[in-house]
Amino acid sequence: GEDVEQSLFLSVREGDSSVINCTYTDSSSTYLYWYKQEPGAGLQLLTYIFSNMDMKQDQRLTVLLNKKDKHLSLRIADTQTGDSAIYFCAETESGGGFKTIFGAGTRLFVKA
Amino acid sequence: GAVVSQHPSWVICKSGTSVKIECRSLDFQATTMFWYRQFPKQSLMLMATSNEGSKATYEQGVEKDKFLINHASLTLSTLTVTSAHPEDSSFYICSADSPAYNEQFFGPGTRLTVL
């Protein structure tokens, strides 16, 4: 079945850039998402990219999509302590209905 | 953007009791809602897809008699955990799709603790 994989932890210094990587298996994914989850809270959609795009930039966030390798990345520029959270990569299955498959999440630690 | 609420946000119950969790889309109509479960330090696991006016579609391994889902209207879906046990303790998150916005919106989650 469909699978989404991410590394579990990432630690960066405040002010540096963070890059969180994700791989997926469903070649017919339509949308790929990045969600942020702060402790004890629900999910916050950060950004998403259509499968026909290679890159999307939104302020400090840059999403890169390599469809050939089924690789998605999220770059956070000038990482701040408030960016410390769990970041989930997700993709929608083909067939519509917005059924979404999530990765295990990457816990980002930002050191002051 | 659209808002999805969940109630309650946190519930503690005794083993053997049933707990109902509500998911509401506050300012849009959601023909499809999703229920997820999240274990500590793990990802979200899709439990079921709920379509208004029809039976929910459960993912493999999810007991439909244990987790009852009712999608009575375009703005409300409920998840009832029947005869809850400590292993049902988890964070339950719902989401609602919005064709108008072309994305899913997530509720804030409900933390269930079964003693």
What key attributes describe this structure?
heterodimer; A: 112 residues; mainly beta; six-stranded mixed beta sheet; five-stranded antiparallel beta sheet; 56% strand; B: 115 residues; seven-stranded mixed beta sheet; four-stranded antiparallel beta sheet; 11 strands; 0% helix; globular
Topology (elements, then pairings):
The complex is a heterodimer of chains A (112) and B (115).
Chain A: E1 4-6, E2 9-13, E3 18-24, E4 31-37, E5 43-50, E6 55-58, E7 61-66, E8 71-76, E9 85-92, E10 100-102, E11 106-111
Parallel strand pairs in A: 2-11
Antiparallel strand pairs in A: 1-3, 3-8, 4-5, 4-9, 6-7, 7-8, 9-10, 9-11
Chain B: E1 4-7, E2 10-13, E3 19-25, E4 32-38, E5 44-51, E6 57-58, E7 67-73, E8 76-81, E9 90-98, E10 103-106, E11 110-114
Oligomer: heterodimer
- How much is the average pLDDT of chain B? 88
Number of strands of chain A: 11
Which regions of chain B are unreliable across 5 or more consecutive residues at pLDDT < 50?
A: none
What is the terminal-to-terminal distance of chain A? 40 Å
> In one word, what is the shape of chain B?
globular
What is the H-and-E element order of chain A?
EEEEEEEEEEE
Measured as a percent range, the helix fraction of chain B is under 10%
Would you list the SSEs of chain B in sequence order as H and E?
A: EEEEEEEEEEE
The total of helices of chain B stands at 0
Shape, principal axes of CA atoms of chain A: globular
Write structural notes for this entry:
The complex is a heterodimer of chains A (112) and B (115). By secondary structure, chain A is mostly beta strands. Chain A has no helices and eleven strands. In chain A, the strands form two sheets. In chain A, strands 2, 4, 5, 9, 10 and 11 form a six-stranded mixed β-sheet that branches. A five-stranded antiparallel β-sheet of chain A has the order 1-3-8-7-6, with no helix packed on it. Chain B is mainly β. Chain B is built from no helices and eleven strands. Classes of the chains: A mainly beta (112), B mainly beta (115). At the A-B interface, strand 4, strand 5 and strand 10 of A face strand 5, strand 9 and strand 10 of B.
